[in-house]
Specification:
Helix content is 26%, strand content 25%. By secondary structure, it is α+β, with helices and mostly antiparallel strands. The protein has a five-stranded antiparallel sheet with strand order 1-2-3-5-4, with helices on one face. A hairpin with a 5-residue loop joins strand 2 and strand 3.
């Protein structure tokens, strides 16, 4: 955790990304910076990987933009990363195994499931603000444990 007394215990960042092949790279680099600057360097690489997988899925499976929200709600809480995109179809959230080594896709959610402390997703339908699509999220580094890699749970 950060030892800088000037940093707030709760914070939130949102990154809007277009439907562009560079979006996963931009999101990865942004997440690494956020995690490192807020004292979560030990899980920055994991956050970077998982965010990249989710933003790549957004790019590949939706026609519109995506957004990445990174939030911590106080001391001892996990950092939650949420990726929104315009496609309301949820991926198979009950993935239990990595695909075959020669498979060209299908690893993203399996990695999220194995590396995140917790994770889940839900479709957005008929929101008052007109927002549709889906949210897929994961959490890392709660309760002072920056290690990640706990058993994930779908919610």
């Amino acid at each position: 955790m950060s030892t800088d007394p000037g940093l707030p215990e709760s914070w939130e960042y949102t990154l809007q990304v277009p439907s562009d092949p560079l979006a996963p790279c931009i999101a990865r680099r942004t997440l690494r910076t956020i995690f490192e600057e807020h004292g979560f360097a030990r899980v920055a690489e994991t956050a970077e990987l998982l965010t990249s997988e989710l933003v790549t899925n957004s790019y590949r499976h939706s026609d519109g933009p995506a957004s990445v929200r990174v939030r911590r709600e106080g001391k001892g809480s996990a950092v939650r990363v949420t990726v929104w995109d315009t496609n309301p179809a949820l991926p198979g959230l009950q993935v239990t195994a990595l695909p075959r080594e020669d498979a060209e896709e299908g690893r993203g959610l399996a990695l999220v499931m194995r590396c995140a402390d917790s994770w889940g997703g839900f479709a957005l339908r008929r929101q008052p603000q007109g927002l549709t699509g889906k949210l897929v999220w994961f959490e890392l580094g709660g309760d002072g444990d920056e290690g990640g890699g706990g058993g994930g749970e779908a919610a």
